[in-house]
Amino acid sequence: YREQRQQLIQEKKNKEAANLQEKKRLIERLKELISSEENIGAAYNNYKEIHEAWKKVGDIARDKRDEIQSEYSRLLEEFFYNMKIYRELKEHDLKRNFQLKMDIIQQLQDLAKLDSIKEIESGLKHLQNEWEEIGPVMNEEWEALKEKYWNQVKSLYDRIRQFYNDRKTILLENLERKKELLLEAEKLISETAENTSAQLWDKATEQILSIQEKWKTIGYGPKKENEEVWQKLRVLSDEFFEKKKAFYAVIQDKYAGIAAKKKEIIEKANALKDSTDWKDTATKLVQLQKDWKKLGFAGQKLEQRLWSEFRGACDAFFNARQKHFEDQDKQLETNLIAKQAIIQNIESYTLSDDKKTALNDLREFTNTFNAAGKVPMKDRDTIYSAYKAAIDKHYQQLKLEGDEKDKIMFEAKIQTMSSSPEFGRLLSKERAALRQQIETLKNDILQYENNLGFFARSKGADALRKEVEAKINTSKSKIESLKKRLKLIPNE
Asked: What distance lies between CA 95 and its chain's CA centroid?
């Protein structure tokens, strides 16, 4: 586009130069006609031929237009006067020409009211051609009429010249502003060698684009210089974006590697999103999120899409988990109310005189309490303590003796423990305590039996031996009792 525009401008200049030479040639012909032609008819015909040719000649350079037009007008005046054409014109033609020329002057005055210099230039050229088309006027009116005309024409030309002078000043100012932007761009590009991150390149890109936007708002400068500074800015801009392209080419492989690893994480997350192993899966997904952050940025093109896929998989699991625990919390509240009602029933229960019936009732209370399910964490210890106090009170009121009492009370203890939220820990603790007691008793028996070997056969030693043997038998009996308890523990 710029090459074609420059070509058109040059063609216009060439055409204007040729038109100027043509008008000079026609002026010389008019001079020769004035000085040599004596035949009025032939002279007038030659004049018409010259004048018709003059009208067909196109524009000439603006700075030559006034001079050439003035010379041509002067020669026409001389021609008409020399040929004494006025003798052949009628009075009404002279008056008509006078009025037409006055109309031209009025139109020139109206033209001066316009704001557009282009319209003024075009209109002035047209009116000057019309003025030359109109024939002569009365001699006594001519000087005054001519003075009005030329005063108005010169005033318009002065305005046109002033406009272009002012415009030239503005163009020079625009050029200086563009040169300042050019220096700013040069400085910016020189600093890009220090850009080691995408953020710095993005910031520099915003700055270079801002410079280009400011450039567009400034307007034109002088044609030649304007084109030169524009070409320099284009070169600098191309250099900047080439450097940016090279930078991103280097890190693109890094982004591709990160993106591949993030896709692997997405696959793992998708494999976990439908799991109902809430605790273990949540831990795994949290670890995947940490791994995701450690990988870093995968590039503007892929990062957001990859993150959306990964987050979608995580959200699917955590939303399902949240719903599960919300439903579970509601169930825990329901269980709490049920257990509170069971405790009230236990507290208000009247122990049956029939021992078997009473034990069955108490076991049923325990089974019902356990079957009610878990309660909220904050209420677990409180509700268990209330239950244990209520059920233990009834067991203590039972009339039990000997092995039966030991067995039933231990079974009741295990059943009561089964209602505890820490049943597994309590059971392990109880099992360990029983085994420790058995081991201690076995060690005692070994010690007693070892001591028996030191007793001599005498009346005093026999009494002491019987006492030790009794202790051994008692310890063995306790061991058997403890073993029976141990067998009552589940999975033992």
From this structure: 79
Task: Return phi, psi of residue 401, to 5°.
Answer: -145, 155
Listed in sequence order, the residues at least 6 apart from 349 whose beta carbon sits closer than 8 Å to its beta carbon are 361, 365, 394
Tokens of 371: 């079957």
**220 three-class SS:** coil
Residue 486, burial from CB neighbour count under 10 angstroms (0-12, 13-18, 19+): middle
Alpha helices by DSSP H, 191-302 = 198-218, 223-272, 278-295
Pairwise CA distance, residues 459 & 58, whole Å: 162
**Residue the block writes with tokens 């509700």:** 383
Report the alpha-carbon distance of residue 4 to residue 33 in Å, rounded.
43
What is the residue-level pLDDT of the chain in tens, covering all 492 positions? 888 888 888 888 888 888 889 888 888 888 887 777 666 667 777 888 888 888 888 888 888 888 888 888 888 887 777 765 445 545 677 788 889 999 999 999 998 888 888 888 889 888 888 888 888 778 888 889 989 999 999 999 988 888 888 878 888 888 888 888 888 888 888 877 676 676 777 788 888 888 888 878 887 777 788 888 888 888 888 887 888 887 777 777 788 888 888 899 999 989 988 988 888 988 988 998 888 888 888 877 788 888 888 889 898 888 888 887 777 778 888 888 888 898 898 888 888 888 788 778 878 887 887 787 787 878 878 887 887 888 788 777 876 655 555 666 666 666 666 666 666 777 778 778 878 888 888 888 888 777 776 665 555 666 777 777 787 888 887 787 777 767 767 665
Strand boundaries in 79-227, DSSP class E: none
Residue type, 119: E
Please write down the HEC assignment for all residues of 398-455: CCCCHHHHHHHHHHHHHHHHHCCCCHHHHHHHHHHHHHHHHHHHHHHHHHHHHHHCCC
pTM of the complete model: 0.34
